Amino acid sequence: MSSPPLIAKVGSMTQRSGAFGNDTIKIQEAGYLASVYDNVYADIGEVFPLLSKEGQENAVREILELCPTEKIVWSTDGHWFSETYLLAIMQVREALEIVLTDYVRTGSMTVPQAIRAVQDILFTTSNNLYGLGLDLTPLHSLTSTANVSTTKLALRTIPPPSLDVHTLHTFLAANTSVKFLRVQWLDYTSTVRVRLIPVMRALAMLKTDPHLEIGIASAALGLLQNDTLISGLTPNGEYKLRAVMPTLKLGPCDGYASIQCEFLEKDNSPVVLCPRSILQHTLQSSNSLGLEFLVGFEIEIVFMSRSHTDGTLSTLRNSGGHAWSSSRALHGRDITFVLEEIYDTLAAAGINLELFHPESCTGQYEFVLPALPTMEAVDSLIYAREIIMHVVSNHGMRATMYPKPFTHAAGTASHMHISISSSSGNDKEVYEPFYAGILKHLPAILAFTYSNPASYDRMQDGCWAGGTWVAWGTQNRETPLRKVEDSHFEIKVIDGLANMYFATAAIIAAGTNGVKEKETMVLGDCLKDPALLIDEEREELGVNTRLPKTLVSALKTLLRDETLVQLLGAEFVERYVATKKGELGLFAGMEKEDLKTWTMERY
Description:
This protein has 603 residues and is α+β, with helices and mostly antiparallel strands. It has helices spanning 27-36, 53-66, 82-106, 111-129, 145-157, 164-174, 199-208, 275-287, 333-348, 374-394, 428-449, 455-458, 500-516, 535-541, 551-560, 562-568, 570-588, 592-600; strands spanning 6-9, 40-43, 72-73, 180-186, 192-198, 213-217, 238-243, 249-250, 256-264, 293-306, 313-315, 355-358, 364-368, 372-373, 397-400, 416-420, 472-474, 481-485, 488-491.
């Protein structure tokens, strides 16, 4: 049952009380409460006509800085006399006109945003809050067909006023050493690309624009690792690259902060090819079915020594005796200092490791990230990888996520833990169809989770790597999906070369479709290595489908999976496959060992 709505009445800056009701509280308190709690609204009715003209305008400015217009109401509290009611109505209109006109003049708001703010404060918020069911009648001057349709279109496509400048100011006040902002995105080759904006320039940009954004060639979503364009793409066209300010975090090094970005069209609509927006669209589809998730990643990464003379990579020095969870792999101040610096840098960025330990491969360590809402989890994964690689590089080494750096040693993965966090998530009627949907489309999903030819060197049976069969099993690390408990599963057939926005979108889209279609779990709980099953066991469990053994095969399987293509978007899948084919063409001209080194230097 939801909490009843509460109205926080804003009074003068000096008034104070301990409760809601007929008492008034400070603007800062009302704005904070309305922003944080879904059932609290800020009422600015008490301001008119009690404060001076300047005080009224300041009150409007301050409440707009503190909370969205959808949480602001005006209650017509004119105080006892008909004349003061009329005066309050006149004054609130004047104050809104002065403040919002100034915002439009300085570029802090667009005209449609200002119109929407007035509609929210004087009509829409109260109409929704009290369930009045009234229709907003446009002014006579806007009743022509052209004007009304244009205004409605603008209100649909332009979001409410942004708090980006407030977010950045608050962040910089707490982190005074930051000089540069890294606005970054993960492209189709899973390359982190970045633009650096000096802090002073970013603040200047936000004085005239509600969002921090720059122009980026639309070809950015069709580049290979060597900056050549994929076949059929031209350098024409431009997208907006908008910083998603709530993702702002310290790092990966002193003096820098990082922000994840999204691609937008010129009309502010999402670019259908934008990696982050593809995942966001998938999550919206899941939310429409009442599904929400917690996701956590394990970062496996190999530290390698770098020659001081020619820069070549080799097995980590002083790593003899390295083994899974071995204390020997933590001997020496050099390695523990690096690990502690990684931990401290991640913590400063708000990423709190759950644990870290040596892994099986020589020089390999695992860092376990916390379970977070899906988008936050993927964003944090990108940040964490950048921080780890940067810290290790500062110590003269290389950290690589290459799936199989040593032929006869364990591979390197990026296992995903996922659970359905919505209220019914642990009901078998919900989570079994979800994972049944994933298993049904797993051969096609592999094109995203094993996105590089090197990924398939790791895909082996009997190596705790998820194996080569479509299967699941309770606490079975030889199956692609390991059931941990209830809706908590681990996806094992995924590595650090994947664009995790794409991989996560594919996994959740397939699972959500399983719930929607009430998919039956036709595969039995496999409690042994699927590769060792005898024919009778294989038939009983339904384990009879092999995963693709190469990227080429996985891409073909993806294109044949019409349902998954439709769920993710045909245009996106076409671009993704074209990019992967471009990569394969690029790799074809390299010797195997040269390609391995080339890849380790980039991932």
